[in-house]
Amino acid sequence: MPKATTASPFRGASPSWSFALLVLLSVLAGCKDTPPAASPVREPPPSPQPVRQYVDTPFKKAPRPIIGALREPLDKLPQIEDFELVGHNPLPNPGDTRPRGRNGPIDISGDCLYVGNRIGRRTGTGPDFGTPALPPEILIVDIHDPSKPQVVGAFPTIPNATSRELRTIPDRNTLIVMNFRETGPDSSAVNNYQVYDITDCRQPVLKQTISLGVDRPHEFFLWRDPLNPGRFLLLSAIHLGDVMEPSLRVFELRDPPNGPISPNPVATFTLSPAVPRTEPIDPGAYRDDHYVFDTERPAMQRNNVHSMSMSQDGSRLYVAHIHAGYDILDSSRLAQGLPCTPHTVTTDATTNTDPNLCLRKLNPDPNARVDFTPPHGWTEHSVYPVPGRPYLLVSGERNGVNTCPWSWGHILDITVERFPQIISRYMVPENLEANCFPGGPGDPALLREFSPHQQLVFPNLFFISWYSAGLRAWDISNPVLPLEVGVFVPKPVSNIVEPFRNSPDVWFWSHPILYNGLIYVADDNNGLYILRYKGARAEELPQRGRVISNTNF
User: Which of 87, 209, 400, 472 has the fewest CB atoms within 10 Å of its CB?
Assistant: First the structure.
């Protein structure tokens, strides 16, 4: 047998260095009992602190697996890869030339693009500006020439409420605006859905209102019955404030904008009381490296619904609960207009075994959910089915410039719908915990945020607004290995009337929309951008019509 050997601590050193080190060690060993000299003792010099290096992807060109491109510094923008900028408008208030800021959701009907307002007053008005607070406004942008979009008007919405989401039904000349209270008391005057006739798209006419009382909505999905095109289901999350269950409510619209709307929900769903709307959580259950700058860990988690989406045929409803993760509901009886039990109150593991429910959790175990929080520090934000494939795109959201590493997204395999499985994740380098240190990409001093927000999903490709990471494109033809295939981060505009968080940076927030082959997306600060995607699988995008992932039509 070969003899055992002991590795030398100086293996690889030159013979002269090895000999010198051995001599030095011998001298030190021989002197260990020698009295010290009378010379004064000197403190050793302080050890230099290591310079931390940020973690980046080794892939500098698309396609990049799993981890996208690091955002360029502010002074080096724009950062463009496989996108072409077709048109831009900074979105001033009517009669002004400065970018207004606080831009909200967008949607399109004909040559009109609508841009909501994320605050409850006209930007640039109110006590902070020494003027009365004027009502908030939805801007109207003429996009007949996508290279030269022009603000051509605006119409006021509800004072003290933000027009946080909106959808159009172009062939029905209908615009639906979701409002909720930003300041003042909650009431049906500020928490509601407004239905407009946009036969003249520059002159919306309010026709009907769905009132929610003191309950504030947050996001909604608009589903159109493929077998009855005049029938719509509006699925609303009740999210903010003193949330009242049920936090998932469904209203039925027929022949909008003038046809009847159910004043009360035709179906509702709640996990409560089996999963309480709020419940205590051990702050120690969260990851330490998710609370580097923002050190206050929550002691309570919220389990109400944040958002949802529906399959094309309406048979499945995909739900994101704020801290309780994701699950799938059977909504087939509701979609088909069959008699069904309208209100699902989950009391135990037997509740959702009732086949007559309008909304029935496929896995009746209330605790059977894909749940990331804790240990991660974010909320569960978005869930979208991949058209024609057994996958869901999900992503979290964690707001604030000091909440590095923010959040990222996952892909779930739902081949067996009762048991969704995580098969991959997608992120940007700023979402790596190792990048959360002073002077690094996640430093709060940079006044940036790197949470994903809204997706536009196709069978093999999706686009996503990613706050300060701009607009990103991902190839998911192999869902186990998502590849980033496009980046658009513009150079910010200047002289904004009211910038978000007083930040000079990029804040891509709205749903991206594909319209006649071009992508439309709004930045909270910097206005409307119209883009052509030129990267991998660009030929798969429809060149006519409108696609937005918060409707099925």
Answer: 400
Per DSSP, the three-state class of 25 is: helix
* E strand residue ranges, 90-149: 103-109, 112-117, 137-142
CA dist., res. 131 & res. 123, Å (int): 11
CA distances from 450 to 100, 214, 466, 489 (A): 23, 32, 6, 12
Alpha carbon distance 97, 250 (integer Å) = 41
Phi, psi of 409 (to 5 degrees): -120, 160
Per residue in 447-464, pLDDT (tens digit) is 999 999 999 999 999 999
Q: Per DSSP, what are the bridge partners of residue 223? A: 233
Question: How buried is residue 179: exposed, middle or buried, by Cβ count under 10 Å (0-12/13-18/19+)?
Answer: buried
**For the residues 389-404, what does the mean pLDDT come to?**
98
The HSE-up count of residue 304 (CA atoms within 13 Å, CB side) is 23
State pLDDT tens for residues 252-304.
999 999 999 999 999 999 999 999 999 999 999 999 999 999 999 999 999 99
Contact present, 519 and 463 (Cβ < 8 Å): yes
CB 140 within 8 A of CB 114: yes
Q: Which of 508, 500, 516, 442 is nearest to 473 (CA)?
A: 508
Residue 524 near residue 492, CB atoms below 8 Å: no
Q: What is the average pLDDT across 359-370? A: 98
pLDDT, tens digit, for every residue of 35-74?
A: 444 444 556 666 566 678 899 999 999 999 999 999 999 9
C-alpha distance from residue 457 to each of 99, 384, 476, 535 (Å): 30, 8, 10, 15
In degrees to the nearest 10, what's the CA dihedral of 414, 415, 419, 421?
A: -60
**Dist. CA 244–CA 166, nearest whole Å:** 23
Q: How would you class 430 by CB atoms within 10 Å of its CB: exposed for 0-12, middle for 13-18, buried for 19 or more?
A: buried
Amino acid letter, 148: K
Check pLDDT > 80 for residue 551: yes
What are the tens digits of pLDDT across the range 158-178? 999 999 999 999 999 999 999
**Cα–Cα nearest to 550, from 214, 223, 251:** 223
Task: Dig out the tokens for 256 from the structure.
Answer: 């909008």
